[in-house]
Amino acid sequence: MVSSPLHHDDIARVLDSVRDAQTGHSLLALTKLEGFRLEDGRLGVALAVAKEQAARLAPLCDEAKIALEKLPGVQSANVILTAHRPAGAGTPAEAATQGGRAAAPPPKAAAGGGHRPFGGPAPAPGTPVLPDVKAIIAVASGKGGVGKSTTATNLAIGLAQEGLRVGLMDADIHGPSLHRMLGTESKPEAREGRLQPMEVWGLRAVSIGMLVDEKQAMIWRGPMVMGAINQFLTDVDWGPLDVLVVDMPPGTGDAQLSLMQKVPLAGAVIVSTPQDIALIDARRGVTMFEKMNVPVLGLIENMSYFCCPNCGHNTELFGHGGARKEAEAMGVPFLGEVPLLADIRATGDAGAPIVASAPESEGAQAFRRIAQATAEALRHRNA
């Protein structure tokens, strides 16, 4: 750890603001921040980069030097590029875990490719990421068990019902569930080394759950997880999309940072339940996205109340209105609330999301209102 008045996020924010004019990628996305030291006003920043890219990135380092010298307590800055040896490529069989045992890293290196759990050649340096996708939004939560994946699935279908071309990407590598919620049983087709998304319920969708056995444990460390997310972004033929909805893993870790460094997010949607213990983690999620300069489109209160299927009486099992109050306190929009209904759970388990299979139901209407509010938030930010 570096003892310094500066935080890792301060350095990362500056590096993310320096962009390659040709590709639009930030210096943070093109390199890896290995460390920094601030001593007597002199700041040194070490960035790992593939050797063949060093010369091309030198001008960006000069821009970063000027920007870093504007940070509090920094009198002079120096950006050093260090050689980075990419990890092996491997094949899906080599990368995936078998019998509860993590596979060893493949021995061969893929030039410039980094970790590639699904194998295949790495994209050429400077290749645009998702050039035909107009907006990417992350559906996130500070903790698990709040219905994030159910929300992401029904939100994506709701956006498609608004007339948008929508993709749905499952970035929850350790706990993929979208394949089950969407009812997909076959594996995506590969054409010329590129994965074709599954077309279902008006979406184009990809999940690691479509590629591996459902009983297989994904015992992968951070670099493998980030490599899988990168391949979902670069090795999938998403085609022209208005919105790509990304179901993030719970928490604030490697997967979230990897996505934010790889592509510019149009915004993030935070899912929480009403009780205080869940809202604590939701605040962390909002703070993470704000630190990375990602707009928070709003909070969703899931399991807002329980509607008895027999008498129709509403019971606030986890409290009610907590997410709305939290959104107001943090100055972010409140997108809506979703009741705790057996039909939402049952349709998800059956692979027929409620927005598609029961569009007139109370649960589907709640998700449709949230989809409309999300679409409006995106239109407002793009105006």
Structure, described:
This protein is of the alpha/beta class and 383 residues long. The protein has two domains: 8-83, Fe-S cluster assembly (FSCA) (GMP Synthetase, Chain A, domain 3, 2-Layer Sandwich), CATH 3.30.300; 136-382, P-loop containing nucleotide triphosphate hydrolases (Rossmann fold, 3-Layer(aba) Sandwich), CATH 3.40.50.300. It is built from 13 helices and 15 strands. It has helices at residues 8-17, 27-30, 54-68, 92-95, 148-161, 178-182, 222-234, 254-262, 276-291, 322-330, 342-349, 354-357, 362-382, and strands at 32-39, 42-49, 76-83, 136-140, 166-170, 190-191, 194-195, 198-200, 203-206, 243-247, 267-272, 296-301, 306-307, 314-315, 334-337. The strands form four sheets. The chain has an eight-stranded mixed β-sheet, with helices on both faces. It has a three-stranded mixed β-sheet with strand order 1-2-3. Strands 6-7 form a two-stranded antiparallel ribbon. Helix 5 (148-161) crosses helix 13 and helix 7 (222-234) packs parallel to helix 8. It starts with 7 loop residues before the first helix and ends with a helix.
